[in-house]
Design goal:
Structural class: alpha+beta
Distance between the termini: 35 Å
Helix content: 40-55%
Largest sheet: 3 strands, antiparallel
Oligomer: single chain
Number of helices: 7
Strand content: 5-15%
Order of helices and strands: HHHHHHHEEE
Number of strands: 3
Number of domains: 2
Shape: globular
Strand order of the largest sheet: 1-2-3
Length: 140
């Protein structure tokens, strides 16, 4: 049973070469985990989902390795766990259902109402054959 951060990271590293390349056990202190993070650390299906999502984000959805690392670090933080875990789960679902999407798409002020711009969580292709991106899932 994983009850601290480093064993959880090692489980994720075993499921994702992208996560393994982040060397998170070097930069994050091993500490006890609790709550939903503890539950996720001990459920193989959740660990598999998170690993697949990170692989899909970097290899097929255009997310940089640095941005993928931010997403994983947020998921490993109990304060940000739930939102990050759900976001990664959504990416995994989209990828497993062959929905083409781009992750963390940055838009300039002239493209959105916010003059400072924003980052869309995802853009989804209208059809599998279409190269036009048409639907934003969320904007942060």
């Amino acid at each position: 049973m994983s009850n601290t951060l480093h064993p959880l990271i090692r489980e994720l590293e075993a499921r994702s070469s992208q996560i393994a390349g982040m060397n998170l056990t070097v930069s994050l202190q091993d500490e006890p985990i609790s709550g939903e993070l503890l539950n996720m650390a001990n459920r193989a299906a959740d660990l598999d989902r998170s690993g697949r999502a990170v692989e899909a984000l970097v290899s097929r959805a255009g997310l940089s390795r640095a941005d993928a690392e931010v997403a994983v670090r947020q998921m490993l933080n109990e304060r940000h766990f739930y939102g990050s875990y759900c976001e990664l789960g959504t990416y995994d679902w989209l990828d497993r259902h062959n929905v083409r999407f781009r992750a963390q798409v940055k838009l300039a002020g002239q493209e959105v109402l916010n003059p400072n711009g924003c980052s869309l969580i995802s853009l989804v292709a209208r059809t599998q054959r279409s190269a036009r991106w048409c639907a934003a899932l969320s904007c942060s």
